[in-house]
Design goal:
single chain; mainly alpha; about 85% helix; about 0% strand
Length: about 160
């Protein structure tokens, strides 16, 4: 009995891709779940960091008090990160995290407002790290969409 090498390679490729996507979801989602749990349980300095941005937003949209907003943001990251990690609603989870991380990044890493060059550099690095994480989440949304579209075409 001859083994069709192209079928074996295709099957192996599908398995490896699925494992890579699952690993990426676990690593990314669990990180946000941990970040979110920390913000939810101990908002601490995050409240003071968020205050200036929240004050600007309140000029346009009413918001609850700063601590509640920070805890709510943490809850979004905790829940969406957990869902992403286990592969439940991965696109929606990645979108929720993205929407959560944008204001977190603007409030927590506003390097353009810092005078001290060393502190400014550290915050710029954190800002860029967060933008890279947002890019990864956007990529995850697109990759999950393509995988779902391929599955639908096969059916």
């Amino acid at each position: 009995m001859a083994v069709d090498q192209s079928s074996v390679q295709k099957g192996l490729s599908v398995m490896v891709t699925a494992l890579i996507r699952a690993g990426g979801r676990v690593l990314t989602g669990s990180s946000y779940a941990v970040f979110g749990a920390a913000a939810l349980s101990e908002p601490g300095a995050r409240v003071q960091q968020a205050a200036p941005l929240l004050a600007k937003i309140r000029k346009v949209v009413p918001l609850p008090d700063d601590e509640l907003v920070v805890r709510g943001n943490g809850a979004v990251q905790l829940i969406a990160g957990g869902l992403l990690a286990v592969g439940v609603l991965p696109r929606l989870s990645a979108l929720a995290i993205t929407v959560s991380v944008v204001p977190t990044t603007l409030a927590g890493h506003a390097f353009w407002e810092i005078e001290d060059p060393t502190a400014r550099k550290l915050q710029r690095i954190q800002f860029q790290k967060n933008t890279a994480m947002i890019g990864g989440l956007l990529f995850a949304m697109a990759a999950e969409t393509r995988a779902k579209d391929r599955s639908a075409r096969k059916a």
